[in-house]
Design goal:
With about 425 residues, the chain is an alpha+beta fold. It has eleven helices and 21 strands. Strands 3, 4, 5, 6, 8, 18 and 21 form a seven-stranded mixed beta sheet that branches. The protein has a four-stranded antiparallel beta sheet with strand order 7-19-10-17. The protein has a two-stranded antiparallel sheet with strand order 1-2. A hairpin with a 4-residue loop joins strand 1 and strand 2. Helix 2 packs across helix 9 and helix 6 crosses helix 9. The longest helix is centred in the N-terminal third of the chain and has 17 residues.
């Protein structure tokens, strides 16, 4: 039997059929893959509208705005030059960063102790703090260009990234149960089989538009791919406006609970919506992988299915984001920051060579002064992510490692067996 954090909704139960002879439960699963298929999306949309032409006349759920007006609402075509979102560091500012690195090194403190006081940037710091305002109430993204990563050791690059990010937000989110607050995005398929990998972050495949957990997502390019791998961002508020105008039924669907796969534990799945309104702000947590599974973490066949309406809504988020996207071409040494609550992000697939392999570092950040209010249903998760660990317990792995929750089932079982044998 599957366990669940909340009772499945009647609309989901309607798609469940019980075999009375075997007492087994079988499900009709919507045809939805992790990699979005435009032909399937268009066919599903046409079929559903043919079956019920009144869908576009569905009222918006109570409290949801008809239109969002804000600098956070934009289309890719609105941005015509990189100078609109890239902040180029001067030689003097790079020198200031280098001095801050020497300062924290001289203090002999663990990396977890890095903050604005221990990583002083007297002239650059206020500029970065103003960029943090841009994240929360401006366009929602920017790039700092560029740290000369080859001039520093791997640990020094981690320290610099941590120090600069301290001026964006004062809290670093926990990304793994082992206390890691720093993550690595790197192709691991050469050293790990597919059944050991459960997230595309560790492959060369493209990623459809999605949301991470947390407020601010940051990526630091230690190395870029020789071909492909472009970072793509889109305003989720622009996507919302399109849906509210043309398909309010999908707004309603996204605001209702989805059965989201939990992969590694109990409960087996959680019922949670993807679309919220809190304090006048629309927040979309676009959790596609939890609806489809991926490689070594496939979606379980014995949990409630994703409905046809939910499948169309998930695809609509991706393809509308793709319509309004902006590509941010990563350069080696770039640091990207995005407002994860008002934007989706994605990436193109890429190729590597033996000499040049794409490698990014990642933070999940929260600025407690500027942070948006989080919907009640997300507060428990946010509390886990931003449960501030003592500096000595925060982990900043210098070498790539796979997050526990992104390891395939086989890898998890192998680790459990190894632990059992040690005991």
């Amino acid at each position: 039997m599957s366990s669940v954090a909340a009772d499945p909704q009647p609309s989901l139960l309607a798609e469940i059929s019980s075999d009375k002879m075997t007492s087994k439960v079988s499900f009709h699963h919507a045809d939805l893959d992790y990699q979005a298929d435009e032909a399937k999306w268009k066919a599903r949309t046409a079929r559903r509208l043919a079956e019920d032409p009144s869908l576009p006349n569905t009222p918006l759920p109570e409290g949801f705005p008809r239109v969002l007006t804000s600098p956070l609402v934009w289309e890719g075509k609105d941005w015509t030059d990189e100078s609109q979102w890239v902040y180029n560091l001067s030689l003097a500012q790079l020198g200031e960063i280098d001095n801050a690195l020497k300062h924290i090194r001289g203090l002999g403190l663990p990396i977890g102790c890095i903050d604005k006081a221990t990583f002083p940037l007297p002239t650059l710091g206020p500029i970065i703090e103003s960029l943090a305002q841009e994240l929360h109430s401006g366009r929602g993204f920017f790039v700092i260009r560029t740290i000369p990563v080859d001039s520093y050791s791997p640990e020094d690059n981690v320290i610099i990234y941590t120090g600069i990010s301290a001026y964006i937000a004062n809290v670093r989110g926990i990304q793994d149960v082992n206390g890691a607050v720093l993550g690595h995005i790197k192709n691991m398929t050469e050293t790990h089989s597919a059944k050991m990998l459960g997230a595309p972050a560790y492959t060369t495949e493209g990623q459809p538009f999605h949301s991470d957990p947390g407020d601010v997502v940051s990526l630091f390019a230690l190395e870029v791919a020789p071909e492909g791998g472009a970072s793509k961002v889109a305003s989720s508020w622009r996507v919302y406006n399109e849906l509210a105008e043309t398909r309010p039924d999908l707004v309603k669907t996204l605001s209702e609970p989805f059965p989201l796969e939990m992969f590694h534990g109990e409960p087996r799945y959680r019922m949670r919506s993807m679309l919220f309104v809190e304090d006048g702000k629309v927040i979309i947590q676009n959790a596609r992988r939890l609806c489809t599974g991926y490689m070594g973490l496939p979606r379980s066949s014995d949990i409630p299915p994703i409905t046809e309406a939910q499948a169309e809504a998930i695809d609509a988020l991706h393809f509308l984001a793709e319509r309004y996207q902006l590509k941010l071409t990563f350069q080696k040494g770039d640091i990207q920051y995005i407002n994860n609550l008002s934007m989706f992000h994605a990436r193109d697939g890429f190729t590597e060579t033996a000499e040049q392999k794409r490698h990014l570092l990642r933070f999940w950040l929260r600025n407690e002064e500027l942070a948006w209010k989080v919907p009640p249903v997300l507060q428990a998760r946010w509390k886990l992510i931003y449960n501030v660990l003592p500096p000595s317990e925060q982990r900043f792995p210098v070498e790539p490692e796979i997050r526990s929750m992104s390891r395939g089932h086989w890898a998890r079982m192998a680790a459990q067996e190894a632990a059992r044998q040690e005991n």
